[in-house]
Amino acid sequence: GDVGQLDLGISPEDRTKLINEVEVIFHGAATVRFDEPLKTAVEINVRGTREMCKLARACTKLKAMVHISTAYSNCIQQEIDEKFYESPLPGDKLIDLVETMDVKVINNITPGLLGDYPNTYAYTKASAEDVVQKYSKGLPVALFRPSIGAGVGLLHVLNCNPKALADLVPGDMVVNACIATAWKTAKEYPGNHEDAPPLDLPPPVYNYVSKIHEIQRSVRLRRAQHSGSVLLPVSPDSVQIFIHSLLFLPALGPRVHYRRDRPSYWEEAYAYRKIDKFSEVIGYFAMRQWKFHNKNTQSLYKELCEADKHNFDFDMAGIDWSDYFFSYVRGIRVYLLKDPVETVPAAIKKHYKLKLTHYFFCTVLSLIVLRVFWVLLKSMFSF
Fold first, then answer.
1. What's one GO-annotated cellular component (predicted)?
2. Which CATH number does the domain 6-214+291-322 belong to among 3.40.640.10, 3.30.470.20, 3.10.105.10, 3.40.50.720?
3. What is the DSSP letter of 201?
4. Closest Cα to residue 131, out of 201, 51, 23?
5. pTM score, two decimals?
6. 207 and 294 Cβ atoms separated by less than 8 Å
7. 80: which strand partners?
8. Would you give the DSSP letter of residue 211?
């Protein structure tokens, strides 16, 4: 199958099998590229959701369907509750637009369509929620909004605000919360009870975020320090300087020191350009802070029996974020980046050298400014 195609690209034989046998649906298929062309994003995130809802309606044994959205689908709102918000453009209209208009025209009008939305991902996920609300009437459907995840790669510098609360959710706990959401949906939906007729109830919404249970504002991971790490400046201008010196200048390496196992200059420069673009996009979320409500999610956890709380734990309040971040970063550096912990002492020394260098130049610059200011005052008032 292909979620970007009509009827999900499923053959008639497979569709019949799904209709006759499926009881629970978790719809999480989506393109998560922030810079995805609008046409592609709509076909996958919006139209794909509509096609999934149509398939769910045809399933004769359906007990529950969980549509996995994102906590930032309504990022233009400063306060996000567990409810549906007005879509930037009704899903059906958005689908008709990309199906009938030329791709070049769509690309040209994309900025105007996005409005205050930072990217096509958030925009289409918001529109997909409108589709869920419209096409799920009479179905056992729930809307699940987990926070954003992050990965690792070549990124050395990220424009972020250390004073803003980070919103991170462990992937395994997201899965547990999804399973619990499906259980509760099947349990409470009137149509799943012989003595109760189906009702057109609005789908319940579950925000699964960590900001309710505050993460430490600044987690210093000195024991997991990477040898290539540097101080993270908040100023966008200083970030650009760091990006230039730490991303693009290293790409010149093949020019001055040839190595057969390294990619060509242009390939490496292109890779870093893509990383720079990604950092600009993710910066919208890294520099801002939202107020989330998650009473439904907290209530869901309280309804679980003790055995299920153990087997399907998703209680964010029980996480020790200091230990979590240490294990998280240590695991990334050792198992993904193949950077052994033996390099940590050298990394810490480098960190302090960079810190001292930073404050030294700040002090020198301040003294120069004060000296110039003093000379100007002296010449003006003839001290």
1. peroxisome
2. 3.40.50.720
3. P
4. 51
5. 0.75
6. yes
7. 292
8. T
Give dist(CA 288, CA 212) in Å, integer. 16
- Residue with structure tokens 């009437």? 137
List the one residue out of 25, 16, 351 whose CA is nearest residue 178. Answer: 25
Instruction: Count the neighbouring beta carbons within 10 Å of the beta carbon of residue 303.
Output: 13
SS3 state at 234 = coil
Map residue 344 onto helix, strand or coil: helix
**Token pair belonging to 68:** 């996995």
Instruction: List strand residue ranges (DSSP E) for the chain, in order.
Output: 24-27, 64-68, 79-80, 141-146, 205-208, 291-292
Three state DSSP letters for 59-84 = CCCCCEEEEECCCCCCCCCCEECCCC
The residue extents of the domains of the chain are 6-214+291-322, 222-285+333-375
pLDDT truncated to tens, each residue of the chain (383 aa)?
899 999 999 999 999 999 999 999 999 999 988 889 999 999 999 999 999 999 999 999 999 999 999 999 999 999 999 999 999 999 999 999 999 999 999 999 999 999 999 999 999 999 999 999 999 988 999 999 998 654 444 445 555 666 666 677 888 999 999 999 999 999 988 766 555 445 567 899 999 998 555 555 455 555 555 555 555 454 554 544 454 454 445 544 544 444 445 555 566 566 656 666 666 667 787 778 899 999 999 999 999 999 999 999 999 888 887 888 788 888 888 888 788 888 888 888 888 888 899 899 999 999 999 999 998 888 887 65
Residues in the chain, total: 383
Apex CA 24: angle with CA 294 and CA 180, to 5°?
30
Here the tokens at position 214 are 């505050």
